[in-house]
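ok so i was messing around last nite and threw this chain in just to see what happens. nothing serious, just curious
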Amino acid sequence: MKRKDWTDEKLFERLLTNRTKKTYWENIRELRRRPNQYVFDRTVGLIKTNSDKEIIIGIDILAQLGFNPRFKQNEIVEICFSLLEKEQTPKVLESVLFAISHNNEILREDQILILIKLKTHRYCIVRYGLVQALSGLEQKDAIETLIELSTDKDPDIRDWATFSLGAQIETNTDSITKLLWKQINDSSELVRFEAIAGLAKRQDKRIKDILIQELKKIDDNGSIILESIEVFNDFDFIELLEKQIELNKKTQQVNEKWLIDTLGKLKTKAQDRSLEVE
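result:
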């Protein structure tokens, strides 16, 4: 019998009794596809226990119950914040924060203020979860907290905070620009690339020379650089990409298709621009 044909209770039983994580997310996703009152009530019951395992299972289900539209979304967010009112283990906090991240478009300002109290939490998985919970938010307090977290000692936290500031919001302030320029010198290549992408998105003309230098040494980790070149939309890169494609035939530094695709997109934009002028 296929998983989609299992009863709700059988899925809960498997989640509660399995000793490995092998099918954990398959069972979670199947229950998420069943936005009904029984699943909701059964899940809330798990969250009310004193078992971290059961609380996490419950939160992971509620995080995206019903996908789009969410089932009882406001109630689910309130449940998440009720869990933040009392001390939780780092793993529970991580799940709660990720659940909030999937629903953060409805957060109130007072809820954001509750979240940012976790920005100095001793465990990096909690600070990482906080970045996810704040990602994409345009509120001033959320942005200021992400700016702080973008200099965290953990490179994954810096990476995602920089990505959120650079790519996921439209707000453009001097503080964000200054931060992105600072991150270009980060020890993590991923952080550097996300900073470059954020500045390219903002059409900061000063990033052009850096994009040129990165293109010359691009390898299979450089897809973000090519995306940034496309977004930057400077047609000088057409010739530079053509030269890089010829060079790459010898060096094989990067997937040639990526270079060709980026070149094609820029050429199309250039043609569209010329038609507009005519």
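not much to say yet. Residues 256-277 form the longest helix (22 residues).
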